[in-house]
Specification:
- It is a single chain.
- With 170 residues, this protein is an alpha+beta fold.
- 23% of the residues lie in helices and 31% in strands.
- It starts with 5 loop residues before the first helix and ends with a strand.
Length: 170
């Protein structure tokens, strides 16, 4: 666990569902007020939030199991997005409206994996969602609070969750 930053603070109070790399999870904000992930490195995150719940996917650039397939990274992004779509359809009632973001690595002046970013954004558009794109720098300065993290927090008196990428609100 990172030592400082918003996600670390929520983890210390055991009030956040942390999604590991290679996983997709749904959270009802009635269960817990925050969902997040850490250790992005060069991974992407897809997050869908509403006043009622959230779906977060931590998508590595390559599948967790090594593959000789030269398109393994793109195919993994498609597979992960099929999991996002299934969770979204199963929990559709939690999303009468939704804020949606794709968080991608920024490396040497460009999105690190543009084909995977396109797979993610087009998959979300097929669900009727309008994702915003946010980036984080790779390699990041791991001494700064919140580096390599994404978290969505639902505060009781607000009508939407606040999404933070490396402790910066989007």
């Amino acid at each position: 666990m990172s030592g400082s930053g918003i996600l670390a603070q929520w983890q210390a109070s055991r009030a956040v569902l942390v999604v590991p790399m290679g996983d997709v999870q749904f959270l009802s904000f009635q269960q817990m007020a925050a969902i997040g992930t850490r250790d992005l490195g060069s991974c992407s995150v897809v997050i869908i939030t509403s006043a009622h719940g959230a779906i977060l996917a931590h998508i590595p650039p390559q599948p967790l199991q090594p593959s000789p397939d030269p398109f393994a990274g793109d195919n993994n992004a498609r597979y992960m997005m099929s999991r996002v779509a299934a969770l979204y359809q199963q929990n559709r009632g939690y999303f009468p409206s939704a804020d949606t973001a794709v968080v991608c690595a920024w490396f040497q002046g460009a999105v690190a994996l543009p084909d995977q970013m396109e797979i993610m954004t087009s998959s979300l558009r097929q669900l009727g969602l309008n994702p915003v794109i946010r980036t984080y720098h790779v390699p990041g300065n791991r001494n700064l609070p919140g580096q390599g993290t994404v978290i969505a927090i639902k505060v009781a008196n607000q009508n939407r969750a606040q999404i933070y990428v490396e402790d910066r609100p989007i």
